[in-house]
Every structure is written in C-alpha cells, then in structure tokens.
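Example for tutorial group B:
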C-alpha cells in the first residue's frame, strides 16, 4: 500500500502539472468519452493501458468476468453505467472485453464449488449460457487451458447478447448510432482478438487491416422494409 501511495504523491507532483490543461478542460467542459468498455476487474487487465487512453477518452465498467446482466426492472451498477453512457454521454461504441486466465471463467470451466461464495455463484449465473455452449458443443478431450479459453470467448459472445436487451442500447443500434465490439486479451502474448459478427470468429486486431466488429454501425429498423413494400 505504501508503494501505491507513493504513486499518488507522484501524480500530484509530477503527472498532474504536466497535464493540468487537459484536466482543467475536462473539469470545465465535462467528458465526451469515445467508447464504453466493459471489462474484467482482474488487476492484470487495465482498459486505459491497453487502449493507451488519455483521461476523458474511455468510460469504463469493470466487474468479475466482464459480465452484462440482461436488462431487468431491478437496478444494478452495470445497467446504470450502460444507460448513462448511452443516453447522457452519447457513446457510439461499446466494447465487452474478456481475457486469458480469467478466474471467473476458470470457475465455470472447472465447475468449481462456489458454495462458500454465494454472491459470486449468483453473479456467474449470467454466464451459464456460455458454460452450456462450451459443455455441449466442444470436444470433451480438450486441455484445461483450451476449455478456459473457449469459455472466455463464448462468455464475450453471451454478454454482447445480454447487452442488446438493454432498451437504450437496442434503440441506439436500431438508429445506427451504436456499434458493439467483443474483445479478448491474451495476457501472455500481449495480443487483442476481436469478434467478427459475420463469421462468428475472433481474429487479431492488426494495424492497417479492417477491424473485426461484432455489430457495426448501421440502421436496423425491420419495419421500414415492410412499409416500403406496402407503398409499391
């Protein structure tokens, strides 16, 4: 803790003076982050560091397993964060970011006994769809590492599906104002994989190449085609 406190003092004396103009602008004019990133609370995954983001660039929500509960009437931190990011801050891109060696996904892939952690068990129920996909559709003879990787990847897919149940997100997608991204960080390799919504596969993000996007920006109002046909 003393080491961390030392960094706080360093921020006050060294970092802030060099970036005071940026902080003053943000304090005076508010924030306009470019994206919302929902990532794991794992200390090894730091969204701002991965994206080399400056203050004000990124709106971040972190929790165990980078989970997005399906929309419900009860309030929740993730739900409130998503709603605020979309309706107040006007973010146009939402990223769900999983990672390698995730403890939450490891509990699911190994069917760990979570009886002594009832809150964790209840939280991870939001990933049971990914767990069933892995259990019923992948070979049984995979290594533990392969099972864990598959679980983390399928969990990103499941949480993106949950995200679309949130009214503010669904409406933004319909207007073509919101794009969804599914990412996976390989800690050992220092590599970021992105979900391609058309192929359903994850592939590396590469400079100079098209970025894989789970759901790109595009107006999606299914009734418009019906109206057009009726007018003909």
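The residue assignment follows.
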């Amino acid at each position: 803790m003393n080491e961390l406190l030392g960094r706080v003092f360093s921020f006050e004396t060294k970092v802030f003076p060099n970036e005071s103009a940026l902080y003053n602008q943000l304090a005076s004019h508010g924030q306009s982050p470019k994206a919302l990133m929902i990532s794991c609370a794992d200390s090894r995954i730091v969204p701002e560091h991965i994206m080399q983001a400056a203050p004000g660039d990124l709106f971040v929500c972190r929790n165990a397993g980078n989970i997005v509960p399906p929309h419900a009437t009860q309030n929740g931190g993730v739900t409130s964060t998503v709603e605020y990011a979309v309706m107040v801050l006007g973010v146009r891109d939402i990223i769900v970011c999983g990672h390698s060696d995730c403890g939450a996904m490891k509990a699911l892939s190994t069917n760990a006994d979570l009886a002594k952690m009832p809150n964790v068990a209840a939280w991870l129920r939001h990933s049971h769809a990914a767990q069933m996909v892995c259990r019923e559709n992948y070979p049984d003879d995979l290594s533990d590492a392969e099972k864990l990787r598959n679980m983390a990847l399928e969990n990103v897919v499941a949480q993106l599906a949950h995200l679309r149940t949130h009214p503010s997100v669904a409406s933004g997608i319909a207007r073509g104002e919101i794009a969804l991204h599914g990412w996976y960080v390989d800690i050992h390799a220092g590599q970021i994989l992105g979900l391609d919504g058309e192929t359903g596969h994850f592939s590396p993000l590469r400079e100079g190449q098209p970025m894989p996007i789970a759901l790109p920006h595009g107006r999606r109002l299914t009734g418009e085609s019906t109206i057009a046909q009726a007018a003909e």
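Residues 67 and 200 are 19 Å apart (CA to CA). Compare this with the pattern of hydrophobic and polar residues in the output above.
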